[in-house]
Amino acid sequence: MSSSLDRHTLAKIAPKLAEVSSQLLFNDIWQREDLSPRDRSLITLSALAAMGRTQQIPWHLDFARQNGLQQEEIIEAFTHLAFYIGWPAAVTALGCISEKEERSCP
């Protein structure tokens, strides 16, 4: 199995999970008007970094950029998070940015 699943590979492995994720998460939760997609991406990246879920970070980095976050803002968010989620978690999340080409994180 690859180190990171995207929508397509998830659909091959677990079609129902992919369907529910698409319908509920991306077509409902991500579309709610009280937060912008940009803000939702920032929150999601922060939560993934805090929980050490680095396998999901590369996909969400790309999605965050599509939602308007700039590289500098993402780096600043992870830098800010170092004091709340711990230095190792923040540095590991920052490593995902430089490892983007390989689509995996340290």
From TrEMBL:
<feature type="domain" description="Carboxymuconolactone decarboxylase-like">
    <location>
        <begin position="15"/>
        <end position="96"/>
    </location>
</feature>
<dbReference type="InterPro" id="IPR003779">
    <property type="entry name" value="CMD-like"/>
</dbReference>
<dbReference type="GO" id="GO:0051920">
    <property type="term" value="F:peroxiredoxin activity"/>
</dbReference>
<protein>
    <submittedName>
        <fullName>Carboxymuconolactone decarboxylase family protein</fullName>
    </submittedName>
</protein>
<dbReference type="InterPro" id="IPR029032">
    <property type="entry name" value="AhpD-like"/>
</dbReference>
<dbReference type="Pfam" id="PF02627">
    <property type="entry name" value="CMD"/>
</dbReference>
<dbReference type="InterPro" id="IPR052512">
    <property type="entry name" value="4CMD/NDH-1_regulator"/>
</dbReference>
